[in-house]
């Protein structure tokens, strides 16, 4: 390292700092998923109902019917269950029996739930009522008429399931009916519902591609909630509720059956429900989790719906935390040199690997540089502050005139966040050493600019000596640098526990 460029004079503390205990354990993640959508809906129902006097039944692929029915299910204190069209699904039949259901409301016409299926439900000694219209718009109107009166309604494109799924918890918690339209025309059934129900305010869900501006302007006292994508939309709607985030329901935004059930169950429990990518936790949801400090989750759907990778990300204490990664030096400032290595390149390579691994773990990551560019020390600090980072990690390699000097060490400063910076250093240092087998040079204090003036917990990592034949050989190996990044990631996760 070039000390004149990146540090203030090194000093050593003569006192022992208090080290706080670990913040928290791993997050809790509960999965509710059956072998079919029918079984998943029943399992979800049993999370909140030991008995359900009333249940809502919809066709297994009739998602518009299910979306319209969801706020009614909330008002009726009823679970929402699915069935096959032509016969009552075995799992649903057992669920109705187990829940001791006495009344069923079928939402949707016979093309979705046949008369034969209706009769099979009735043969269980259950009273059956059907709410249906000739179109999805008309069915939504019937459902709205069956709800407690409200002067406000949600208006959703009936052919854009994502908008409706994202809106279920919001609509239910506010006791608003969900009415359908297409992208440009106000359907007659929806118009009739607005008039007959005395709707004075409408909330349009989705952007102008879902519902055009011209249609929007025809609605009574309209407002709009739109977003960049379905994940962002679910977060924006969650922020408009007062629902609890003590733990949160998470579903795959492209799995309608699971997401609708998740919306109904979260409403019943007064909890937030958000949509994510099924394979990798969406950035919008990570940000929401971090902003609300959520540490408990229920995921709806088996692993083929919402992957084990997402469940692991939710369980990791680093999820939603913003980590600022600063690869030292860059461009004209090559840093230390030795054995064919330029420190700036080593730093960037390790930092990039660290960035990828932390993001894969569920963190939000920001890098001071992603290429061979240069920022002043002050600019690096300012970037970390602008990112509102939870922690700041500066990645470096060391140098010494004596080639026998070798090993890995971690520095922190005592100006800001002294105890937490020490704890961060103590979590990362042994993981680095273990990952690449270098000499453990320990945790030390120093007034390096980027950790002295960063106000969040901050550390500077000296991964190894480029001037050492031992360490330089390690720092040349891709596998070793990958292991090093993995070790740092483990240390960061441990810090947030």
TrEMBL record:
Query: What residue stretch is flagged as signal peptide?
Result: 1-24
Q: Does Signal appear among the keywords?
A: yes
Q: Which superkingdom, per the lineage?
A: Bacteria
Residue intervals of the MurNAc-LAA domain: 381-493
Per UniProt, the keywords (alphabetical) are: Signal
UniProt KW Signal keyword: yes
Q: Name one GO biological process term.
A: peptidoglycan catabolic process
**Which GO terms label this protein's molecular function in UniProt?**
N-acetylmuramoyl-L-alanine amidase activity
Q: What SUPFAM superfamilies does this protein map onto? A: Zn-dependent exopeptidases
Give the matching PANTHER family: N-ACETYLMURAMOYL-L-ALANINE AMIDASE LYTC, N-ACETYLMURAMOYL-L-ALANINE AMIDASE-RELATED
Q: What is this protein called?
A: N-acetylmuramoyl-L-alanine amidase
């Amino acid at each position: 390292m070039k000390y004149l460029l990146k540090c203030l004079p090194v000093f050593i503390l003569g006192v022992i700092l208090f080290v706080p205990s670990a913040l928290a354990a791993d997050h809790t993640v509960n999965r509710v998923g059956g072998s079919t959508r029918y079984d998943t809906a029943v399992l979800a129902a049993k999370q909140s109902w030991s008995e359900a006097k009333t249940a809502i039944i919809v066709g297994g692929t009739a998602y518009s019917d299910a979306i319209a029915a969801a706020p009614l299910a909330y008002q009726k204190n009823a679970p929402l269950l699915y069935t096959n069209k032509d016969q009552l699904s075995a799992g649903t039949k057992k669920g109705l029996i187990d829940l001791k259901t006495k009344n069923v409301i079928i939402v949707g016409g016979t093309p979705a739930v046949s008369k034969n299926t209706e009769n099979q439900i009735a043969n269980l000694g259950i009273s059956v009522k059907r709410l249906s219209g000739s179109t999805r718009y008309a069915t939504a109107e019937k459902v709205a008429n069956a709800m407690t009166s409200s002067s406000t309604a949600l208006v959703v494109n009936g052919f854009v399931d994502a908008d409706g799924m994202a809106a279920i918890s919001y609509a239910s918690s506010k006791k608003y009916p969900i009415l359908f339209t297409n992208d440009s025309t106000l359907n007659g059934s929806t118009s009739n519902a607005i008039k007959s129900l005395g709707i004075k305010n409408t909330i349009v869900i989705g952007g102008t591609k879902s519902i055009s501006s011209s249609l929007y302007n025809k609605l009574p006292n309209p407002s709009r909630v739109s977003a960049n994508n379905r994940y962002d939309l679910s977060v924006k709607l969650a922020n408009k509720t007062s629902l609890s985030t003590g733990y949160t329901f998470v579903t795959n935004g492209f799995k309608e059956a699971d997401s609708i059930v998740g919306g109904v169950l979260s409403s019943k429990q007064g909890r937030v429900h958000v949509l994510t990518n099924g394979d990798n936790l969406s950035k919008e949801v990570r940000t929401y989790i971090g902003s609300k400090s959520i540490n408990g989750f229920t995921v709806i759907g088996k692993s083929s719906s919402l992957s084990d990778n997402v469940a692991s990300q939710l369980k990791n204490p680093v999820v939603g935390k913003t980590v600022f990664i600063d690869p030292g030096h860059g461009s004209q400032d090559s840093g230390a040199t030795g054995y064919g290595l330029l420190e700036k390149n080593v730093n960037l390579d390790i930092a990039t690997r660290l960035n990828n691994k932390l993001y894969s773990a569920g963190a939000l990551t920001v890098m001071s540089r992603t290429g061979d560019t240069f920022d002043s020390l002050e600019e690096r600090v300012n970037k970390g502050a602008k990112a509102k980072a939870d922690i700041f990690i500066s990645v470096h390699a060391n140098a010494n005139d004596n080639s026998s000097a070798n090993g890995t060490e971690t520095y922190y400063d005592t100006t800001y966040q002294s105890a937490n910076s020490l704890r961060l250093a103590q979590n990362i240092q042994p993981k680095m050493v273990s990952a690449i087998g270098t000499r453990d040079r320990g945790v030390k204090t120093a007034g390096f600019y980027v950790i002295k003036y960063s106000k969040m917990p901050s550390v500077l990592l000296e991964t190894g000596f480029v001037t050492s034949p031992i360490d330089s050989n390690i720092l040349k190996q891709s596998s070793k640098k990958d292991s090093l990044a993995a070790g740092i990631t483990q240390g960061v996760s441990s810090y947030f526990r």
